[in-house]
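HOLO CASE FILE
Compound: pyridoxal-5'-phosphate
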Amino acid sequence: MSRKHNFSAGPAAIPTQVLERAQSELLDWQGKGLSIMEMSHRSKEFVSVAQKAEEDFRQLLNIPSNYKVLFLQGGATSQFAMIPLNFARADQRAAYIETGMWSKKSLTEAARYCDMQVIASASDNDYLSVPRQSELILDADLAYLHYASNETVGGLRFDYTPHSGDVPLVVDMSSDILSCQIDVTKYGMIYAGAQKNIGPAGLTVAIIREDLLGKAQSCTPKMYNYDIHAQAGSMSNTPPTFAWYLSGLVFEWLLEQGGVEAIEKVNQRKAEKLYHAIDDGGFYVNRIKPENRSLMNIPFNIHDAALESVFLTQAQDAGLLNLKGHKAAGGMRASIYNAIPESSVDALIEFMNDFAKRNG
Ligand SMILES: *Cc1c(COP(=O)(O)O)cnc(C)c1O
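Model generated. Tokens follow.
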């Protein structure tokens, strides 16, 4: 068996130890004679798996008890509609910060369900830096303020948590949740699709402050109502049991690594090395302002753009997979989530240096 270096933006790499553990208990989960995905979600076995996953997740992010943790389906994209439906009246204003493709998708969807207003946009800075706190002028009657902490396509991240006063702060953390320490109490809601930095596709995790629940617009479908999911422990219908289980194994793995505090240091080191390889020598380029450079998704180009397709082909032959940039961005992108070992980043840097030498 040889696992290659996987820089996929999502669905993304999962720690090898987690896959091995899942493999070892796939046919016969803990002596029960069947796999975890063949059990009722209401069985005591699955309920214990589900609860353990939630406990470990709460420990990893230090989530206070007045926040619900929901294990949902429908991807982060469903949240784009659920957020205005649950937290705003149809005629109420909700504020959005626009920093790239994902925040643009979320605000476009929100405009269908509330009075959406873009209060700041990175387009003013060519998407090379995020709007500063001083640009965020908030009226007190806003339903919430929404932003994406890390733009997965553009590789642009917030280097600060926006301060929103009494206006609930809602954040799309799909591509950087669990990558660095956060203060959950600053947020009304945090959400993330699992397939980047948590586990397999099919699961979306939401952390919601309890006082925000129970105010959904009356037209809200039951499956889009956070309060219904919260009251049912995320089991108002059949949840994605296997993805929930596997995410639980990733949480256990992360705790074994020393938790978020420890992985954050590794993530900083990985990103620092890779940006250094991009900046050094003038062969590659990433134009994002240093403090807003993503630690998870690192896009880069070659000054001589004709070499990019050669780079991608040769990288693939060298066992460095999924480095092609998003179709909207072109160039290259290395996604280096928690599960990507430092040795994979080292292998990429070695290849980049060698490629530059051969083609520079
Ligand atoms: C991938 C991604 C999404 C969309 O996730 P789906 O699960 O495909 O709906 C939303 N926001 C961000 C920041 C993402 O990276």
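CASE NOTES: The CA atoms of residues 58 and 65 lie 9 Å apart. The longest strand covers residues 115-121.
CLOSED: yes
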